[in-house]
Design goal:
Blueprint: H1 21-26, E1 49-56, H2 63-68, E2 76-82, H3 96-104, E3 108-113, H4 135-152, E4 160-164, H5 173-192, E5 196-202, H6 203-215, E6 224-228, E7 252-264, E8 267-279
Length: 284
């Protein structure tokens, strides 16, 4: 995504072998008595889907800049609200007051949590925040942190929280297994508190990985898919790595351009561009 993050279009991956039940166990068995929570199951309560244009930027803009940018076609903004892997770790403007102020201007908010990254993450500057030896435990802990930080900013239950997982070599089996276990545990913990787990990654990396798991019937997958495929026209339901029936309706975001400068209302920002048909935060 934004700000020093490596977004490389990976070469089309060789299709993974279908996962068996035994493989699913290796990916991180859920605790006994857990629910499935599969995407598209319809059992998950979430905020109504917003459809329109969004931008995300590394550092949350000032309220004044957000007011000026209401002159643009954008109606939603992605904010990096928490997580040890954030490029812009200091967010001095991002407070509950800021959230209420932008909501009052008519903005929708897409909250992004940049937590631990895959052991085989491609970006060099993310290698110091890789998932450790206990991915399920770590994912649970970071999912709890994601909810706690969201509550502190005034985001209510049924809000989506988007886990940012930068591009990784998911075909390396050990790395893929660890990463999927972490994501599933994070999803489960976010759901447990009544929030909606979303997922952001490169279309040919993490998104393809999640879709392969979905087709194999793996449980505890993200409920909303935010896929990055740059240098293409914006689209929601023509992404080649996702089946037509996956993550729909109202459960997709396409990030179609990145690191571009735009100026509105006399203020210039470096942003990524997104087309959205997905839930946004419920701000109290």
């Amino acid at each position: 995504m934004r700000c020093r993050k490596l977004m490389r279009g990976l070469a089309p991956a060789v299709a993974l072998t279908a996962l068996t039940a035994l493989t699913a166990l290796a990916l991180g068995v859920a605790p006994t008595g857990a629910t499935a929570g599969r995407p598209g199951a319809g059992a998950e309560a979430m905020a109504p889907a917003f459809r329109g244009w969004a931008f995300d930027t590394c550092l949350a803009p000032s309220a004044d800049t957000m007011r000026r940018w209401t002159a643009s076609d954008y109606q939603a903004v992605g904010v990096y609200y928490a997580g040890r892997g954030r490029a812009c770790d200091r967010q001095p403007r991002l407070t509950s007051g800021w959230m209420r102020a932008v909501r009052g201007m008519g903005w929708k908010v897409l909250p992004v949590y940049v937590g631990s990254q895959a052991p085989c993450v491609n970006a060099k500057h993310k290698k110091d925040v890789r998932i450790g030896r206990h991915p399920w435990r770590q994912g649970t802990r970071e999912g709890r942190d994601a909810v706690r930080k969201a509550k502190a900013l005034g985001m209510q239950r049924r809000s989506p929280l988007y886990l940012d997982m930068e591009a990784y070599t998911y075909r390396k089996k050990k790395c893929g297994d660890i990463t999927l276990a972490f994501v599933r545990a994070w999803d489960r913990e976010v759901r447990r508190y009544g929030y909606v787990p979303g997922f952001y990654s490169s279309a040919d990396s993490g998104v393809r990985h999640m879709e392969t798991a979905r087709r194999a019937g793996v449980r505890d997958l993200p409920a909303v898919m935010w896929f990055a495929r740059w240098h293409t026209r914006p689209h929601l339901y023509r992404e080649r790595v996702l089946r037509q029936d996956a993550w729909r309706p109202g459960r997709r975001i396409h990030q179609y351009a990145g690191n571009v400068k735009e100026r509105h209302g006399g203020r210039t920002l470096m942003i990524d561009r997104n087309l959205v048909h997905a839930p946004t935060a419920r701000i109290g």
